[in-house]
């Protein structure tokens, strides 16, 4: 694999965080689930989804409401690559 497949520190940290959240969601879902395999699988997904909302999206919303994500030096702001470099996403194109 060439240089284009190398991950930066932010991407590696994000993947590790998501893997840890998935492990925690699996542990919670298996611990709390009392039904069959389908019920436990759904509960695992719901636990993982709730953890992602609290751990990743919550701080992003907080930074968006009380400050500016582009000027912040926090972990969540560093994961927002499009705020640091030009991109062609719809929000960046609308902002000018």
Characterise this structure:
The protein contains 5 helices and no strands. The protein has one domain. The radius of gyration is 17 Å and the shape is flat. With 96 residues, it is an all-alpha fold.
Keywords:
96 residues, mainly alpha, 5 helices
In short:
The protein has 96 residues and is mainly α.
- Specify the biggest β-sheet: none
Mean pLDDT: 75
- Compressed to H and E, one letter per element, the order equals HHHHH
Q: How many domain modules?
A: 1
User: What is the 3D form?
Assistant: flat
How many beta-strand segments?
Answer: 0
Taken as a percent bin, the fraction of beta residues is under 5%
User: Which range best describes the helical content: under 10%, 10-25%, 25-40%, 40-55%, 55-70% or over 70%?
Assistant: over 70%
Discrete helix count = 5
Question: What is the element layout, followed by pairings?
Answer:
Blueprint: H1 9-32, H2 37-66, H3 75-78, H4 81-84, H5 90-95
Helix pairs in contact: 1-2
């Amino acid at each position: 694999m060439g240089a284009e497949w190398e991950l930066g520190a932010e991407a590696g940290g994000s993947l590790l965080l998501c893997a840890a959240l998935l492990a925690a969601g699996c542990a919670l879902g298996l611990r709390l689930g009392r039904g069959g395999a389908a019920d436990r699988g759904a509960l695992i997904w719901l636990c993982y989804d709730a953890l992602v909302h609290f751990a990743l999206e919550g701080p992003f919303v907080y930074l968006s409401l009380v400050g500016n994500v582009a000027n912040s030096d926090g972990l969540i702001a560093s994961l927002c690559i499009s705020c640091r470099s030009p991109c062609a996403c719809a929000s960046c194109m609308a902002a000018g």
